[in-house]
Amino acid sequence: MSGAQPLLPGATLGVLGGGQLGRMFVHAAQAMGYFTAVLDADPNSPAGLVSHHHIRTAYEDPDGLAQLAGLSDAVTTEFENVPAQALRTLGAERPVAPAADAVAIAQDRAAEKAHFGRCGVPCAPYAVIASAAELAAVDAALLPGILKTARMGYDGKGQSRVKTREELADAWQAMGEVPCVLEKMLPLALECSVIVARGADGACVHLPVQRNLHRAGILAVTEVHEGNVPADLAEQAVAAAKSIAEGLRYVGVLCVEFFVLQDGSLVVNEIAPRPHNSGHYSQNACDVSQFELQVRTMAGLPLTQPRQHSPAVMLNLLGDLWFPQGTHAQPQTPAWAAVLALPGTHLHLYGKADAKPGRKMGHLNVTAATAEAARATALQAAALLGIEAF
Ligand code: ATP
Ligand code: MG
């Protein structure tokens, strides 16, 4: 993108992928007066259901990509496992943000970790395992560890915790001997993430540091308020996230996930080349949301530093909530009315027809005047919904 001539409202913004992130991008783009086009094979995809245009083909389909390029003045992605080649194809026709090369790095844990090294940001000690020789050569100091497939993992899928060499060998075999990274299991004190948005002109802004609680490998709760993370660590995390984005010459919204270890040090975990679940609170707690930042970066509009106006807690609403007591009986509608009777609750549902355990169905943002009040209300909402206290 040249950056000189922004795409103004009235233009059409395209997105590869029709999941919930695409849906919330579409909402933000439409609110600003843009038209939208979504490419996703699923006729009921959350973003396809609300977009002006919905192209129902696979990501690699040349006709589908040509249609998307034909309809759109610029294209973005909402799903990190969209083949980078599809972005390259589109990039030859239209401005694409983020660019295929940056997405390709984020799609591959080995390439991603090499990039962290180039940026001087520490990550967990690791080894790449792509062959039997590399498996045999693994340093015992990496055990106990987590074996992760280099590609296509999300929500803790494609991961296996291993304590011994035997378990490691078995886990690699069970993964089909695909390229993997073995990471040392680190003693975590907490997890946090930072969302940055970088324009084609190099301007870079960020959302405040998010403190995240994962359960069973899936994000469960995000808390964002003054003091959620020690101030020096928050500063370090923002600086590291910006240097990772700059190193990629990144254009778009990027999420960087971090671990804070028990000794107080900060370690980068992974990046997502798109808005992120941990940034959803920004829809109701900040004057600019992560989805508006995505619109602005791809349209070449100015970026202004977002301001959080309310302390916030975000609760993920997984499909499990539709099945109280773990029954496999008929799904039951969660107690939305009772939750919405609490002050400062903002319900976001993704329009997915079938609730399934572990499936992200929506999220609840809770805002309040103080962090204590946001937390107290979020705990009340959690109790009503059957989400374990945090
Ligand atoms: P997502 O895409 O949902 O963020 P993912 O499948 O890419 O998840 P990771 O972020 O790599 O998975 O790991 C999921 C969670 O597992 C982390 O948030 C953390 O709680 C735990 N975890 C991962 N790697 C390590 C590690 N090296 N040491 C300790 N815990 C870890
Ligand atoms: Mg993760």
TrEMBL record:
Pathway: Purine metabolism; IMP biosynthesis via de novo pathway; 5-amino-1-(5-phospho-D-ribosyl)imidazole-4-carboxylate from 5-amino-1-(5-phospho-D-ribosyl)imidazole (N5-CAIR route): step 1/2. GO terms for cellular component: cytosol. It catalyses: 5-amino-1-(5-phospho-beta-D-ribosyl)imidazole + hydrogencarbonate + ATP = 5-carboxyamino-1-(5-phospho-D-ribosyl)imidazole + ADP + phosphate + 2 H(+). Its EC number is 6.3.4.18. The keyword Cytoplasm does not apply. Keywords: ATP-binding, Ligase, Nucleotide-binding, Purine biosynthesis. GO terms for biological process: 'de novo' IMP biosynthetic process. ATP binds at residues 109, 148, 153-159, 183-186, 191, 214, 269-270. It holds the Pfam family ATP-grasp. Residues 113-299 form the ATP-grasp domain. It is an enzyme of class 6 (ligase). GO terms for molecular function: 5-(carboxyamino)imidazole ribonucleotide synthase activity; ATP binding; metal ion binding; phosphoribosylaminoimidazole carboxylase activity. It comes from the Bacteria. Catalyzes the ATP-dependent conversion of 5-aminoimidazole ribonucleotide (AIR) and HCO(3)- to N5-carboxyaminoimidazole ribonucleotide (N5-CAIR). Homodimer. Belongs to the PurK/PurT family. This is N5-carboxyaminoimidazole ribonucleotide synthase. The lineage of its organism: Bacteria, Pseudomonadati, Pseudomonadota, Betaproteobacteria, Burkholderiales.
